[in-house]
Amino acid sequence: MITFQIAQDNLSLCHIIETFMPELPEVENYRKYIAGTSLDQKVVRVEIADGKVVDYDEGSFVAALEGKRFVRTDRVGKYLFVETDGGEHLMMHFGMTGSPRYYRDLADAPRHGRVIFHFENDFHLAFNCPRKFGRLTLTTGVAAYCNKKKIGPDAAKISWKDFEKRIKGRKTPIKAALMNQSILAGVGNWIVDEVLYQARMHPEERVVDLSEQDLKLVYDKMDFVIGTALRLEAHFPDFPADFMIHSRWTDAGRPDAPRIVLEKIKVGGRSTYFDANKQKLRKKA
Predict the structure, then answer these.
(1) Which residues pair with 89 in a beta bridge?
(2) May I ask the CATH architecture of the domain 160-274?
(3) Where are the alpha helices (DSSP H) in the chain?
């Protein structure tokens, strides 16, 4: 678990973010964090401590951002975008362990700050990425980047009709389809497992074998799980007691939640947790 806390003298709010591998709700936390700390300040210097995380010419990256102000944030799935007053869009993808860190004193600088934006108010925003799987780049706009990278609609915003159109008839397991970021963006491993548990559906069910009613149930449960995670800022101990996540990560869940006996398999190469008593496979691929 990654935990960080920052306090700013002129802010009464103390920002605390706790997360596992960042998925849609966690990245939305990051978006709000950056929006609450780093907008409308001039970037006086961009420091690239490790160019591995910068998917752009380093000199051009620095030149495009120095002297600019971050003015707006956006998010599509796990991708966070920060627009500057010059029209550039900084894209942040946090990989497995990345997170933003805003601080003033150098003694508080994160150990793994790969890129640091130094502001005119003597505060700093670090792209903290211990395992270096995160990426930063520049793009002309959110839509342009998503089209180029074939990123689907945000899972928190997609309509039922669009969801049905994009997923219906696929011969892949439902878990693999939900994690396909070109179908919908932002749904990762724990979210999918939770959605399918709430829907009482086996993760290996093929989409093509599911009825419209089945798919609507999955959509509704996805909307419920993501909505709950966003409302509770991905703070797992606050999740409803009947969520499977309390048994998946017992050290992060609520102690009063009933414990579920979970089985672990691989689906689409990903570790998958499910309740074999409640999520029975109806048809085999």
Answers:
(1) 83, 139
(2) Orthogonal Bundle (1.10)
(3) 24-37, 58-65, 142-149, 160-167, 174-178, 189-198, 212-231, 245-248
Distance CA 199, CA 188 (A): 16
CATH class, 2-149 region: alpha beta
Q: Which residues contact 236 (CB under 8 A, 6 or more apart)?
A: 245, 246, 249, 252, 253, 254
pTM confidence score: 0.90
Per-residue pLDDT tens for 92-126? 999 999 999 999 999 999 999 999 999 999 999 99
Distance, in Å, from the CA atom of 214 to the CA atom of 174, rounded to the nearest integer, reads 11
**Rg of the Cα trace of the chain?**
20
Residue 265, beta-bridge partner list: 272
156: number of Cβ within 10 Å: 21
Backbone angles phi, psi at 217, to 5 degrees: -65, -45
| C-beta of residue 183 within 8 angstroms of C-beta of residue 151 | no
pLDDT over 70 at 90, yes or no: yes
Q: List where CATH 1.10.8.50 sits in the chain.
A: 160-274
Half-sphere exposure of 43 (CA within 13 A, CB side): 27
Q: How far apart are CA 4 and CA 130, in angstroms?
A: 13
Residues of the chain with CATH 3.20.190.10: 2-149
